[in-house]
Amino acid sequence: MKTQVRLRRVYEGPSPEDGVRVLVDRVWPRGLTKAAVHLDEWVKDIAPSTQLRRWYGHQPERYTEFRRRYLIELRDAQPAATIDRLRKLARTGPVTLLTATKDVEHSQAAVLIEVLRDDRTVQEPAPDGAGAAPLARLVNAGRPQHRDSREARA
Predict the structure, then answer these.
(1) pTM, 2 dp
(2) DSSP result, the chain
């Protein structure tokens, strides 16, 4: 069954077609109360890291590299589990991802839409930015476990 995922700005009013409304930003949107958002879920763990978000700064010329780095972050266990859960939810009915960003086409939410609609894996663009690389593996499959930096120093 095809996933039913769509993307909207959190500042737009809810629609009957939204289904489950999921905020995918790490930071709560300015000027909104939780009641005004009509939110079903807030998944901070799927948002880009603070470091990546600050580096990107919503500069469209950095989007390709942002997308590549963000897809790497999404392979970590917690975001990957959230992606799987959202995919399953989207197979049962509509899911609307909500973001506060003004430029939704160059946002983490746009990357998440791609990932959620592709049941196979999290993909990343080729190093030259010319498009998606071939699918190498499922999320986290065969991935080496990274040791904590404190353990590496011990």
Answers:
(1) 0.74
(2) ----EEEEETTSPP-TT--EEEE--SSPPTT--HHHHT-SEE-GGGSPPHHHHHHHTT-GGGHHHHHHHHHHHTTSHHHHHHHHHHHHHHHHS-EEEEE--S-GGGSHHHHHHHHHH-SS----B-TTSSSBPPP--STTTTPPPPPPHHHHH-
pLDDT at position 94: 95
Q: Encoding tokens for residue 99?
A: 């973001």
What does the pLDDT look like over 69-118, one tens digit per residue? 999 999 999 999 999 999 999 999 999 999 999 999 999 999 999 999 88
- Give the strands of the sheet with 20-23, arranged side by side: 5-9, 95-99, 20-23, 41-42
Q: Which candidate, 49, 47, 40, places its Cα nearest to that of 99? A: 47
- CA 16 to chain CA centroid, nearest Å: 23
Distance of CA 153 to the CA centre of its chain: 32
User: Which two tokens mark 93?
Assistant: 């009915």
Quote the CA–CA distance of 65 and 73 in Å, as a whole number: 13
Beta carbons of 106 and 60 less than 8 angstroms apart: yes
